Amino acid sequence: MLDFSVRNYRGSSLNPEAFGTAILPYAVGTAGMKNFTGPFNPVEALSYLGVVVVLCALLALVFHRRLLVSRAPMWFFVIAATLCGIAMYWGGPVLDAIQQLPTMSTSMIGRLRAVFGFCVAVLAAYGVTTLMSARIPALAQSETTSSRSAATRTVLRDLAGWALAAFFAVLVVQAASVAQEGSKLPEWSARWVKYSAVFAVVALVMVALIPLVRQRWFKNLVVVGLITVMAVPSLLIVRAWWPHSKPESYYAPAEAFTYLQENLGDDRFVALGGALPTGASTVYKTRDVLGHAFMTGRWKDLLQQVYPDVLVTPTYPSIPSGLLEEVIDSPILDRLAVRYVAVGSAESVPGRLEQLSTGDSPIDLRADGVIRSGQFTGPVRGIQVTALAASLPAGTEIPLHARVVGHDGTVLTEAQFLLRRIDKETFIPLDGDEFSEDQPWHLELEAEEQPGIVTLGADDQGNLAISALRPLPDGMNVAQTGNVTLIERTSALDRVRWANDVVVEEDAAARMELLGSGLAPDMVVLERNPANAATPGSTATIEVLPSNDLDQNTIRVNSTGAGWVVVADSLDRSGWTATIDGQQTELFRADHVGGAVYVPDAGEHTITLEYKTPGLRVGATVSAITLVAVLALALVDWRARRRITAESAQCDQQQNSDLQVT
User: Fold this and answer.
1) What is the pLDDT of residues 86-130, one digit of tens each?
2) Is the pLDDT of residue 154 over 80?
3) Is residue 516 within 8 Å of residue 307, measured between CB atoms?
4) What pTM, to 2 d.p., does this model score?
5) Residue 443 has what DSSP assignment?
6) Which residues contact 100 (CB under 8 A, 6 or more apart)?
7) What does each C-alpha distance from 375 to 351, 441, 545 come to in angstroms?
């Protein structure tokens, strides 16, 4: 269902600068995606390990003969880390070979940093283990000196460990040097060079003292010290790179999502031109028809019917704000239950612009000063003002308060937002669609801070000259204004709805054209003829029961006859099943991407849609068998150890008895 064949990262890798972040975390930029270098962003490039972790990994390579445990797993992690590191940061034949494996060329190779970091962490654990072990076990000494060939193998292994340690150390230092030279944050990089040097010296001093103080307690103290020296810089990096604020502070503007939470219900919204942050819908638990997510091919079909170039990447759809009037009345969005459209505060909305007053007299917008228009009547979706002169410093944001006030001083509607630019014609969206034709009002503008030089046009009486955007009978309604404008689409169908009429279309292209033509709200498009028919003219009340489990939907329906309950979700994938009144029923493909359940007669019914991961039962069974096998092997090993211990104790007892007899 998820086709990533269009992705092609073959031959694409990070570079040594990114590897330099192993000890210089800010060499390629900051977490805020500013001042970064290279063909990547810092979030995808950060490979921080810390100088202490690197040193501990080097200890494992240099002193691996100290290990009392099997060294075979350690060499596995050495090889894995080497291959991953070369492929990610230097590319070449190693990268090409890895990308020949299934799925490896459809994802950025840099995401292997998680595997690479884990391998180095394991090697660091081996390195700490060498500190806790004796210098060279006696058994290992006897084995290495038993024969010339064994001694040769030992020397070769030692040389390999030393060579790999030197190679890894040189690569880290060289990459850090290259990263620092190309860094746009040289002070930050230089600071971390000093930090890393201090941490390295502290760690090396502690390790060097181990041969002098041979007590076990001192080794334990050194291990605790190494963990501490490793944790301090790591926590600083975590604090800088991981979000630790409340979601509403980094997923602003929260007021728009608050409105959606209160009014959207089970339906969807669409944000044009990045008016709302991608992914924030997950935080605020509101359904976004776009979002940054994996999508089936059929869902993409519908989005491309709305806007052909919607897919920036296979998982990132976006619609420019300039296409508002082209897409806002799309029948596809109706079928996908898109109830609201979000655009930026500076964007105009559909309507008829009517000039209410003109004038070239200047009136200045100043802090804590209110400028007013003349008196007018009728509904409005926004106001347009004319700037005669505007000079704002770069990056200026003007906290602007716009109020529509009645003749008795009552505020009829208002909007507060940050005005980031002043154009010759500046539009201010307002929620005044519902005003009656004879409703009197005037506009008031107030700036909370001095915005620089902003001179607007006024009439001969000194009133602000304005044009009003009048609403059209287009089924749209400006519902919320501020830093984001929310436009309600009254033509949107419910996400879960009733259909009493069916049209069948097997051809996908013809089906897409049919859905885009605008069908009756009570009609559903199926892909094959159903065995049962709906009752013409039947109606139903539908209730979607609240649930925090998106893998299960329970729907109560009370109908006047037979018909279809249509769900505008991406149900066209294996794993979804449907029941009606507890009995298994068929889930039909509906409207190209959704699902439909047939209700056979009038009355109350309960429909349950449930998703279970395909193969979950098989996977759980395999995992359970594996767990039992591991426990059985552990039990066998434990019993064997007990038997050996008992036999050894019995042998020692027998030897002691023999000595006493002697």
Assistant:
1) 999 999 999 999 998 888 888 888 899 999 999 999 999 999 998
2) no
3) no
4) 0.79
5) E
6) none
7) 21, 6, 49
Count CA atoms closer than 13 A to 468's CA, side-chain side: 22
Closest residue by Cα to residue 84 from 49, 52, 40: 49
Segment (H or E) for 453: strand 453-458
Q: Distances in Å between the alpha carbon of 473 and those of 374, 434, 489, 516?
A: 26, 12, 12, 21
Q: Are 519 and 525 in contact (CB under 8 A)?
A: yes
Q: Are 324 and 504 in contact, with CB atoms under 8 Å apart?
A: no
pLDDT, tens digit, for every residue of 378-407?
999 999 999 888 777 777 777 889 999 999
Q: Can you spell out the DSSP letters for 460-513?
A: TTSPBPEEEEE--SSSEEEEE-SSEEEEEETTPPPSEEEE-EEEE---HHHHHH
Phi-psi region of 409 (alpha: psi -120 to 50; beta: other; left: phi over 0): left
Give, as one character, the DSSP assignment of residue 492: P
Can you tell me the distance from the alpha carbon of 577 to that of 584, in angstroms, rounded to the nearest whole number? 8
| Nearest of 132, 167, 185 to residue 21 by alpha carbon | 185
CB burial string 575-607: b at 16+ within 10 A, e below: ebebbbeeeebebbbbbbbbbbbbbeeeeebeb
Taking alpha carbons only, the member of 431, 468, 433 closest to residue 353 is 468
Work out whether strand 583-585 and strand 576-580 pair parallel, antiparallel, or are unpaired: antiparallel
The token pair at 595 is 């699902």
**Rounded to 5 degrees, what are φ and ψ at 503?**
-125, 135
Q: In the structure encoding, which two tokens stand for residue 381, read together?
A: 């979706």
Tokens of 226: 């190494």
Spatial strand order of the sheet with 540-544 comes to 540-544, 552-559, 603-611, 576-580, 583-585
C-alpha 283/C-alpha 398 separation (Å) is: 28
CB 552 within 8 A of CB 558: no
